[in-house]
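User: Some background: our group keeps a shared notebook of sequences we're curious about, and every so often someone picks one and asks for a predicted structure to add to the entry. Today it's my turn. The entry only has the sequence so far, pasted here. Could you supply the structure so I can complete it?
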Amino acid sequence: MKLKNLIQGKIYTAKDNPPFKTDINEDTAAHYEKLRKNFEKTYKAYWDAVKDFQLALEKQGKKKESVSVHRKYVTQVLKFHSWFRQWIRKGFF
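Assistant: Of course. Here's the predicted structure to add to the notebook entry:
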C-alpha cells in the first residue's frame, strides 16, 4: 500500500497490507507440456480433415480448388505452427 493512498485517521491492519502475495501462480513446465501435446494432437486431426477435404474436391474434379485449399493451409496454419514450435523450444516459460 502506498503512502499517498492512506487515509488519515483510519486504522490499518496486516490484512490491509499483506507482507507477501497470497495467490501463487503455480504454472509448471508439466502443465505447458500437457497443453503442447494437446495442441499437437488436435493439429494432426485438423491436417487430416484438410486432406480429406482436398481429396473430396479432387474426386469432384476440382483440382484447382484443392490446390488452393492446400496453399492457404500451408501459408497460414503451417507458418503459425512452426512459429509456435520455435516459441516452445525457446522455453518461453
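Suggested note for the entry: The mean pLDDT is 79. Helices lie at 29-59, 63-89.
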